[in-house]
Amino acid sequence: MVQSLISTAAPVAPGFSCPPLPLDPARVARARELAGKIAQEVQTFTETRSTVAVERTVLRLFGVDGANEEGVPLVNACVDRLMAVGLLRDGVARPFCLAMHDTGLTPTQLAQRIADGNLDLTTYAETVPDAQWAAVDALGRKLARAGVDRILAQRNARAEKLGRLGCGVQPLKYVIVASGNIHEDIVQARVAARQGADVIAVIRSTGQSLLDYMPDGATTEGFGGTFATQENFRLMRAALDEVGEELGRYIRLCNYASGLCMPEIACTGAFERLDMMLNDALYGILFRDINMQRTLCDQRVSRRLSALSGLIINTGEDNYLTTADAVEAAHTVVASTLVNEALARACGLQTDQLGLGHAMEIDPTIENSILYEIANAMLIRTLFPGAPLKFMPPTKHMTGNVLRGHVQDALFNLVGITTGQGIQLLGMPTEAMHTPHIHDRYLSLEAASLVFAGARALGSELLLRPGGFIETRAIATLEAAIGLLDEIAGEGLMTGLSRGHFADIRRSPTGGRGLDGVFERGDRYWDPCEDLVTAELQRLGQLDAQGRAVGGAV
Amino acid sequence: MKGEVTLRPHVTEADIEAHGVDPQLGPGFVPVKGEPGAQGPRGVDLTAVRAYGDTLDDGQVMLSFSLPVPFGDEAKEAGRQLCRQMGLEQPAVYHAHDLGEGFTYLVVYARSPYAVDFTKISVPKVTSHRLDKHAVEHLAAEHFTRKLRVLGACTGDDAHTVGIDAILNVKGYSGEKGLEAYKCFEVRNMGAQVPNEVLLREAREFQADAILVSQVVTQKDCHRTNLAALIDLAEAENLRSGIVFVAGGPRLSHTIALELGFDAGFGPGTLPPDVASFLIQALVARQTAAQ
After folding, report:
1. Which residues of B are catalytic?
2. Chains A and B: how many Cβ contacts under 8 Å?
3. Is B244 domain-assigned?
4. How far apart are the C-alpha atoms of A337 and A346, rounded to whole Å?
């Protein structure tokens, strides 16, 4: 029904499929049940809390945009002021709407006054006179409506463009740009699109995940990537739309809704019609030492907005095995993917939005490394039918020998096409040496196109040897994942994370960055956006009448 | 010597008889330093060494690059002229590809007439012997009654901990356990994005004997700036002389690390025992000097 509006999953060519893997449906159901239990506990925890990033997101949905002369985003200026004096417990929406009602200013005008120190938001934070509440409530709903409608308009625009232009077939060819300068990135991205790229991911400047604000405006300086700003999103979107129209193929844009500004990036990305977001419930906790309470609260809001925008989320399990052992720890990737799925569905994300990321970082020099790759890829493919899985090549084993790296990537691409992966992150021959040069991307795209065309229907022609290595390995990995999920379901996700179950990394519930931005919601907490997003997800059939995952998964 | 080394192609038993085995260059290949006309095996004139394709002194090199000009015969000619300006002869465009948006990719083979005097080359190297884990432990036990404290971090904005983790974490890399697994080291790995100030504060508190800094992101040479700033700060805080400073990363070398004021630098392919060997020998040398 309305689900077709999402239109995220790309078409498939005849014969593109994964060979059948005989998993016991009862064991798969058991794995999901355990993951659902883990997610339910997280959901209960996060529903009663908010964070500074979530409150800033409310203001962005209201239409607040821009920064003051010192470069402090206006949303930060408003939220920080309330947080500093302990008046954020009931949310930023009520005092902000009351002040708007009182002053007659627009959202950005008001935020500008607050940021300049010309208006004290705390004077509006105590109580709302009963006589004014109806008007304030109506104003909040109106602002929320406008924000949500911006997101829905982009969702419809994507559906229209995909319907009219079409797009590449699965696996979508995904390449990165990372020059640090958005204008240079655009040149690189347009060339990549002409060479066959289906998805352009703009890598963020290293360190952005730890910034507790979103930089503002177009940026030309970054390290290892380009800052995620709403203006950079807009510029790249316009460039890809233009080249896509010319090529007659919709080009998807990807960024990173992760780190301390996860929900704000999801919101601004939804405004600017991003099509994919790296968005993992656990990645920031493990690899960036962001506090787990913070990230778990932030992922909920960011994923609800992404669900509404119709974009694909990519999870980051592909990074786990850069630190843990690929052969021994494969089951942790499977377990985490199941937890990420359950958390995502609880936020209204649908199957064709689940670009669950996986890759095994198996040392290509070990005997039969490709059999391990195939076993793991088939296991994930079979566990998540219909999801546009994102398959990422090993980067840990790139040596600087660019020609050897090119061969490794080609073999990995062969595994991707043979096992029916939805999105193929293309390795670059120069990976681990420098961010891609313009021709590195061309060489990767050309090689991937050759492999994909040559083996398009290979998966549908193959049957596994029953009881053979691949089948045995896949089933053993699933069993180990169920064992781990059972353990985590018993102790809770936060305890599980503190015991180092994932990626060999231990994190404490009160450690890491960003905990001081988490708070329990007060009795009078008010966020009109949250209610409206739930209502819209219900209207679209993405959440059930009780606000839970459709089909009662969680 | 035989049996310990793999013979390189074309090196005969007679070459090995005549020249022995050079620790860097392998069997049968000993340059006679500083002598005009010094010859290696196969009649190579070591005072004038050229690139090698399939015939001595053919000077064959391969380049690949893009030009911001539209694809076509003019782009190919531009590539050839650029190669000539690089001093290359007979540039042949093997492959040209239209990248679109006014860019052309070229693969060029050419002949470089230039030669280097190999007998005059001097490259600073980490001078320690490579010891295995057992030998490192043994040497440490001989000289120290306490554990040596090693502090590691990716500094500045760098969030890529793969390198430092491979060297420090028990798991290690490529079958070699990391420094955490060594009895003689007490390791503290601070992980990603550690500001230089915080690293040095930790070093003081931890009473570090050695600091290992990993830098993976190198855009606009930020690794150099950041590493140099660490040494400046350490000097200002009087911490430089008491601690062994080591830098590592895919774009680092011992030469670069020395330039930046470090005691050693490790590039791609480094394994935990390489670093452990250097650390233990440097720390033993310091102890001996102090006595």
Report:
1. 171
2. 80
3. yes
4. 14
- The rounded distance, in Å, linking the Cα atoms of B52 and B39 is 16
Mean pLDDT, rounded, for A101-130? 92
pLDDT for A498-530, tens place per residue?
Answer: 888 887 778 889 988 899 999 999 999 999 999
pLDDT at B43: 74
| Of the candidates A200, A251, A152, the residue with the CA atom closest to the CA atom of residue A540 | A152
B221 touches chain A (CB under 8 A): no
Which of residues B74, B89, B122 is at a domain's end?
A: B122
**Cβ(A394)–Cβ(A406) below 8 Å:** no
Q: What pLDDT, on the 0 to 100 scale, is given for residue A49? A: 97
Higher pLDDT, B4 or A193: A193
| pLDDT at residue B216, as a whole number | 80
Cβ of B192 within 8 Å of Cβ of A433? The answer is no
Query: Chain B contacts of A504, Cβ < 8 Å?
Result: 169, 171
pLDDT at residue number B8: 39
- Residues whose CB is less than 8 angstroms from the CB of residue B149 and which lie 6 or more positions away in sequence, other chains included: B185, B186, B188, B206, B207, B208, B209, B210
Parallel, antiparallel, or unpaired: how do β-strands B21-22 and B26-27 relate? antiparallel
Identify all chain A residues contacting B192, using CB atoms and an 8 Å cutoff. Answer: 287-289
B276 and B140 inside one domain: yes
Q: What is the CATH number of the domain that holds B174?
A: 3.40.50.280
Whether B115 and B64 share a structural domain: yes
pLDDT in tens, A147-167: 999 999 999 999 999 999 999
CA distances from B30 to A265, B14, B19, B49, B55 (A): 60, 13, 6, 14, 21
Q: What is the dihedral of CA A183, A187, A192, A194, to 10 degrees?
A: 140
Q: Assess A337–B contact: CB distance below 8 Å, yes or no.
A: no
Q: Go through chain B and tell me how many residues it has.
A: 291
Q: What's the CATH code of the domain at B59? A: 3.30.30.60
Calculate what percentage of chain B has a pLDDT beyond 70.
Answer: 84
B105 and B223 inside one domain: no
Look at residue B127 and tell me if it is in a domain: no
Q: Provide the pLDDT for residue A129.
A: 80
Can you give the residue range of the structural domain that contains B106? 49-122
How much is the pLDDT for A322? 64
Contacts of A513 (CB under 8 A, 6+ apart): A210, A260, A288, A289, A290, A291, A294
Does a structural domain hold residue B17? yes
- If asked whether residues B118 and B93 sit together in one domain, one would say yes
Distance in Å, alpha carbon of B261 to nearest chain A alpha carbon:
23
Token pair for A470: 């691949």
Give the total number of structural domains in chain B: 3
Is A224 within 8 Å of B217 when comparing Cβ atoms?
yes
Query: Residue A324 has what pLDDT?
Result: 66
Cis before A171 (ω within 30): yes
Assess whether pLDDT exceeds 90 at residue A2. Answer: no
Show which of B98, B122, B146 is a domain's final residue.
B122
Q: Measure CB to CB from residue A442 to each of B105, B158, B250 and give the nearest one.
A: B105
β-pair type (B264-266, A423-425) = unpaired
Q: Does A283 qualify as catalytic in the annotation?
A: yes
Same domain, B185 and B285: yes
**Is the Cβ of B219 closer than 8 Å to some Cβ of chain A?**
yes
**Using one digit for the tens of pLDDT, what is the confidence trace for A38-58?**
999 999 999 999 999 999 999
Chain B 104-123, residues with CB within 8 Å of chain A CB atoms: 105
Same domain, B176 and B161: yes
> Residue B273: pLDDT band by 50, 70, 90 thresholds?
very high
Q: Which residues of A touch B99 (CB under 8 A)?
A: 191, 194-195, 438-439, 442
Which residue do the tokens 């390449």 mark?
A175
Which pLDDT score, from 0 to 100, does residue B219 have?
A: 66
Residue B4 has pLDDT above 50, yes or no: no
Residues of chain A numbered 169-208 and touching chain B (CB < 8 Å)? 180, 187, 190-191, 194-195, 205-207
User: How long is chain A?
Assistant: 554
